[in-house]
Amino acid sequence: MTALPMMHSGGKRPTIGLALGSGAARGWAHLGVLNALADEGVVPEVICGCSIGAFVGAAAAAGELGKLRKWADALKWKDVIGLLDVSLRSGLIKGEKLIQYFERNFTDRDFTDLPTRFACVATELSSGREVWLHTGSVSEAVRASIALPGLMTPVARDGRLLVDGGLVNPVPVSLCRAMGADIVIAVDLGSDIVGRAWRHSAAEPAPEGETEASWSDRLLSRLGLGATGPAGNGHGDPAPEENLPSLVSVLNASINIMQVRIARSRLAGEPADVLISPRVGQLGLMDYHRAEEAIAEGVAAVARIRPLLRYVMGQADDAGA
């Protein structure tokens, strides 16, 4: 990890930090959380993110949250597919289209130019080390933080290959502390995701406006890989007795298990002062077109924790009085 200077409030009002966790498309819940916190008068002075938390956190730190919310609300699944630049080398997706869109619509800046202090987490592929990104181009850092292994290609930065920070620190409370936050509000998107993949089947109704085929089946079809799942084996044959899930369902569930276990371990050793846990397990890895659902749950998650939030913020106000 890159060393950061430790900062303390020195008798002033405690510094509020926000740690936005990883979770792919479930990360749109961060938008609802941020809006609800603003309604409570909570304005973080430090924002740290991992993976999709880095993506949303960068927009928030740049003061462009409203623009990101408008874009997320307008996304359809065809738009999501359109942002995917297929690559079968080191990952299914290069990620260049997504980051180019980010740079065009959410002005790329140097970290030092952001109105709010921001940093994000990535993982060094060769060593497994946690890397804290807080200098240089924000969009480059975000691209490294969201590089989910197997899905997005790694990023070369400062002589290292970097991948998704969720491998080592899915909810970066420790980074918030190192950035000077005295009180950390963390958002964990994995509280209810383990096991959800097995409850999605062809028997379930498709989301409004969707066909019965899942996003993963459509993506695999585009890649020419076919799909295997409850509806069949990709060759028109009936489903086997074992009712095996699709390739992407297996990968999705495996990633979920890994990140939940890592997040729980890290949060046990580095607890947040307030932990917000949106219930977004029903959303798939690439369900970016379901922002309205995720955002609403982000707002609801803040409402559930509001008594604790107000208690902690009240203590912060008393400390700064």
Features:
eight-stranded mixed beta sheet, 321 residues, single chain, alpha/beta, two-stranded parallel sheet, 38% helix
Topology record:
Blueprint: E1 16-20, H1 29-39, E2 46-50, H2 52-61, H3 65-74, H4 77-82, E3 91-93, H5 96-105, E4 117-124, E5 130-133, H6 138-145, E6 150-152, E7 155-157, E8 160-164, H7 173-178, E9 183-187, H8 215-223, H9 247-269, E10 274-276, H10 291-320
Parallel strand pairs: 1-2, 1-9, 2-4, 3-6, 9-10
Antiparallel strand pairs: 4-5, 4-8, 7-8
Helix pairs in contact: 1-10, 2-6, 5-6
Structural commentary:
The protein is of the alpha/beta class. Helices cover 38% and strands 14% of the residues. It contains ten helices and ten strands. The strands form two sheets. Strands 1, 2, 4, 5, 7, 8, 9 and 10 form an eight-stranded mixed sheet that branches. It has a two-stranded parallel ribbon with strand order 3-6. A hairpin with a 2-residue loop joins strand 7 and strand 8. Helix 1 (29-39) packs parallel to helix 10 (291-320). The chain is globular and about 55 Å long. The two termini are 35 Å apart.
Q: Give me the Rg, rounded.
A: 19 Å
Low-confidence stretches: 5-9, 200-213, 223-236
Q: Give the quaternary arrangement of the chains.
A: single chain
Q: What profile does the largest beta sheet have?
A: 8 strands, mixed
Mean pLDDT: 81
Annotation field: number of helices: 10
- β-strand percent reads 5-15%
Question: SSE order, as H and E?
Answer: EHEHHHEHEEHEEEHEHHEH
